[in-house]
Amino acid sequence: MSVGLRVRLVLLLLLPSVSTGNVLNLARSNFSDVVKDYNKDTFIKFYTPWCGHCKKLAPVWEKLSAVIGKDPRMKTQLKIAEVNADEHKDLGTHYGVTSYPTLILFPRMERRADAPSGVYGKYEGKRELGPLLDFVKTHVKPSKTRRIHAMDLLAHEFYLAAEPAPREE
């Protein structure tokens, strides 16, 4: 067994909270930037490494992230993230997290008026892929900004096509 492979195996055993795939690891340093994205909602799992329910949810959360990443519509509208609430207790406390895992969907900035508290609420359903996908598909809507931006591009192309040709002298 190579040294690199042994190091990776040791890290995987010692650091069970390290994510793979498309799940974003959030901390105090990047939480606001990720959650205040103008174009994407963020579905966050607050967990602790010692929690049995959190350990059971971990592969489902990774699978959710993978499924979202493969969906052309959803991957442009949603981020899947997690916060180690043992390391970042203040983040959990700020959002009322009292048990683990707690799943919260944060709306993108464009839709904050729809959720004055800054969150749509906690997900209380089954911790299975199907119900989680149903939840995000119900709450995540197409971005109005993207449609407007597409119209701006179309208008710009129309404008360029309508310009008169330069005169030859």
Can you put this structure into words, describing what you see?
Strand 2 (41-47), helix 3 and strand 3 form a beta-alpha-beta unit. The chain has helices at 3-14, 28-35, 52-70, 89-94, 129-139, 144-162, and strands at residues 24-26, 41-47, 78-84, 102-106, 121-123. The protein has a five-stranded mixed β-sheet, with helices on both faces. The model is unreliable at 3-20 (pLDDT under 50). The chain has a single domain (16-162), classed as Glutaredoxin, CATH 3.40.30. The protein contains six helices and five strands. The chain starts with a helix and ends in a 7-residue tail after the last helix. It is an alpha/beta fold and 169 residues long. Keywords: Signal. Pfam families: Thioredoxin. Belongs to the protein disulfide isomerase family. This is Thioredoxin domain-containing protein.
Question: Notable features of this structure?
Answer:
about 170 residues; alpha/beta; Glutaredoxin; five-stranded mixed β-sheet; 5 strands; disordered N terminus; signal; Thioredoxin domain-containing protein; protein disulfide isomerase activity; Thioredoxin_domain; PDI
